[in-house]
Amino acid sequence: QSNGTGGGDWNAPATWLGGLDPTSKHTAVIQGSDSVRVATAASCSSVVVTSGGKLSAAAALTVGGTFTLEAGAFYYYGATVSLVLPGSSQSLHPSSTVVFNTANTGAGTIPGTTYGNLVIQRDGNTTPDGPLTVQGNLTVRNTSGTKVLRGTGGATSMTNTVHGNVAIYGG
Questions:
Q1: For residues 35 and 155, what is the distance between their CA atoms, to the nearest angstrom?
Q2: What is the pLDDT of residues 147-159, one digit of tens each?
Q3: Can you tell me the distance from the alpha carbon of 149 to that of 141, in angstroms, rounded to the nearest whole number?
Q4: What's the rounded Cα separation, in Å, for the pair 116 and 34?
Q5: What is the DSSP letter of 127?
Q6: Which residues are registered as beta bridge partners of 57?
Q7: Which long-range contacts (CB under 8 A, 24 or more apart) does 127-130 make?
């Protein structure tokens, strides 16, 4: 469990209660007052980000079990051109937020799954690999003027559902 004093780097013992960073045998719990960054590859058996907690992945995070974002929790991902949701399964609360923010402008994908709130901040094409359901708000930010969210290549049709607001900013 994170230390409750603001967070820190995933691989820094001071970030975690007891001074031991999680391994593939541990469940990592990120408390609501903490922001934990994955700057170098890391792994654990499962992750729970509690309300108000923030997990930011700029490197690979391997999760053997469930990746959970509770109500009001945040997951920021920017490690590669395509959004990666860690875990063999995900539990994303309707009021959680996933932010896909990368400077990489190459074409990428986003998992077709059910999100709480979804923010896509990038300047390259982003193609869902299946239908998206956004239980809250969908925000797309783009400054390059290129397409950011487009349909699956080769698919004749795909239905994406947004239950909240849709906001599109940029070029």
A1: 38
A2: 656 665 555 567 8
A3: 10
A4: 20
A5: E
A6: 38, 77
A7: 127/151, 127/152, 127/153, 128/152, 128/158, 128/160, 130/158
Q: What is the pTM of this model?
A: 0.91
- Residue 167's identity, in one-letter code, is A
Task: State which amino acid sits at residue 166.
Answer: V
Digit-coded pLDDT (tens) for 1-25: 887 888 999 999 999 998 888 989 9
The DSSP line for 3-38 is -SSSEEETT-GGGBGGG----TTSEEEE-TT-EEEE
Q: Cβ contacts of residue 17 below 8 Å, gap of 6+?
A: 1, 2, 3, 4
- For the chain, give the longest Cα–Cα distance: 53
- Nearest residue to 35 (alpha-carbon basis) of 14, 60, 52: 52
